Amino acid sequence: MERGLLWLPLLVVFFWLAWSGWNEYQKIESYKRWASQFERHKYDIYSVLGQKDDRLTWGKPTRKDPQNLQTVSFADIARIRFRIDSKFFDDQDAEFPLNGKQISLELVLKTGEMPSIRFTDVNIASNWYRFLSDRLATE
């Protein structure tokens, strides 16, 4: 009986890992369907982001469809700030730290709002920052 009690926590961990994997797989499949409408897109555990023509759309990934979707036109964006932890980077050619706990792009809209799009990877975030900054410069 003691052996059974010792294996019970492992069994619980196994089922939790299986459920977590299935849950993440469902989120990715939902993202694939959603992202097919965009020219450029990204998936992250924190957010999904897509760009089509002059529109930028982002939201939170879920198993069904992305939730809390927000859309903005490039014409409505005054500038973009790249934030790693509490430090802001405004220069596209700057050397970004390779790690950070909170990585985000902050869109400063002409209305004064500042929505934030979270990332887990500095390289992906910096590529989006450079792309969006270049795109704003040509608008």
What does this structure look like?
The protein has 139 residues and is an alpha+beta fold. It has one domain: PH-domain like. It contains 2 helices and 8 strands; from the N terminus they run αββββββββα. The strands form 2 sheets. A 4-stranded antiparallel beta sheet has the order 1-2-3-4, with helices on one face. The longest helix is centred in the N-terminal third of the chain and has 34 residues, at 2-35. The protein starts with a helix and ends with a helix. The model has no long low-confidence stretch (mean pLDDT 87).
What does the secondary structure layout of this molecule look like, with pairings?
Blueprint: H1 2-35, E1 40-43, E2 48-52, E3 55-60, E4 67-73, E5 77-84, E6 87-89, E7 103-109, E8 116-119, H2 122-138
Number of helix segments?
A: 2
Strand tally is: 8
- CATH fold-level label: PH-domain like
**CATH secondary-structure class:** Mainly Beta
Percent of residues in helices: 25-40%
What is the H-and-E element order? HEEEEEEEEH
Question: How large a portion of the residues is in β-strands, by DSSP E?
Answer: 25-35%
| Overall average residue pLDDT | 87
Number of structurally distinct domains: 1
Main beta sheet, described? 4 strands, antiparallel
Which structural class do you get from the secondary structure elements? alpha+beta
Report the radius of gyration as a whole number of Å: 19 Å
So what's the overall shape? elongated
